[in-house]
Amino acid sequence: MQGSLVYQDYINLINKNFITTENTNNHQIQPSSIDLSLSEECYEIKHSFLSYNSKVRNKLKGLAIKKINLNKEFIFRKNKTYIVRLNESLNLKNNIFGHCNPKSSTGRLDIFCRSIVDYAEEYEKIPKNYKGEIFLEITSRSFDVSLKKNNSLNQLRLVNKKHNFLTDKQLINLGKKYKISSQTKDKIKIDNGLKLSVNLSSSKIIAYVAKKHAPVLNFSNIKSHKINDFWIAITNNNKKLLIEKNKFYILRSKEKIIIPSNFAGEMLPYDTGIGDFRAHYAGFFDPGFGLSNGSYAVLEVKTNEVPFILEDGQTIARIKYEKLNKNSNIVYGKGIKSNYQNQGLKLSKHFK
Q1: Pick from 182, 211, 238, 290: CA 20 to 30 A from residue 197's CA?
Q2: 3-state SS string over the chain?
Q3: How do residues 65-90 score in pLDDT, each as one tens digit?
Q4: Which domains occur in the chain, in start order?
């Protein structure tokens, strides 16, 4: 069947050595994606690059400043760029291709990362029938972050032959069958995907903004960091928020969303029709996200252009829905200890 692969497909690909890794860990396999992990091989590099006409390794020879061993904890300094070989490599066949994205926790820490593979003209793209290594370029932009081998910063979604994205008409029909949004049916906003608006009307905290000066964040330590060391909480101010240039904000949608078990979702990171800002760094929603009561979408917002005012209820992002190649027997949620099911305005899993 055509479309994005599901949990059991990844098990099969690992068993057939289409995906190879040092330590096969089923906890890495998500309902419609697989978490990738850092190897010990790391380099600080002079600048970012693509390797469209050679292997990544050949490009590295002239760009590496120093080699780093991630068998021990290493502090990735803010605004320095590193590249790490991932533990996983690919030997794809049968016209399978893929796309990578930062994980939710990575996006919520403003860690900018993107995959690079041999002979590829674009970041994050895994070409059809790709055979070779995967590297991850990492630039932490708000905090100094301590990383080590086997930390997982990004994930891979593989697709059989072609994507099967829903048209707006199909999405409207899906909305009639399932309550995919907490918007009432006559007010559900669908235009090139499901439109989400920003919530700035809460009586509690409406947003967090990253502090300029913070201690080192240890990526391996879950639920252990103090929020106040890293974030400034913002409370309601007439249902408006000034997004300042080069500051990093965590916000949430006004609507709750649901991704049914035979679909996946992808949030568009840039949408210049909505505004010149990035609203999301980690774009995958696995099947089952928000099932039962719905979950808010957490938004990572940053502008590198000009400051702008956000107002409560303003459209801030779009989600495309994609039909999977089959129903996933594993869905997002408590059963696989998912971190962000039924979330509100939630920071990454690293905070108490």
Answers
A1: 211
A2: CCEECCHHHHHHHHHCCCEECCCCCHHHEECCEEEECEEEEEEEECCCCCCCCCCHHHHHHHHEEEEEECCCCEEECCCCEEEEEEEEEEECCCCEEEEEEECHHHHCCCEEEEEEECCCCCCCEECCCCEEEEEEEEEECCCCEEECCCCCCEEEEEEECCCCECCHHHHHHHHHHCCCECCCCCCCCECCCEEEEECCCCCCEEEEEECCCCCCEECCCCCCECHHHHEEEEECCCCEEEECCCCCEEEEEEEEECCCCCEEEEECCEECCCEEEECCCCCEECCCCCCCCCEEEEEEEECCCCCEEEECCCEEEEEEEEEECCCCCCCCCHHHCCCCCCCCCCCCCCEC
A3: 999 999 999 999 999 999 999 999 99
A4: 3-160 (2.70.40.10), 168-336 (2.70.40.10)
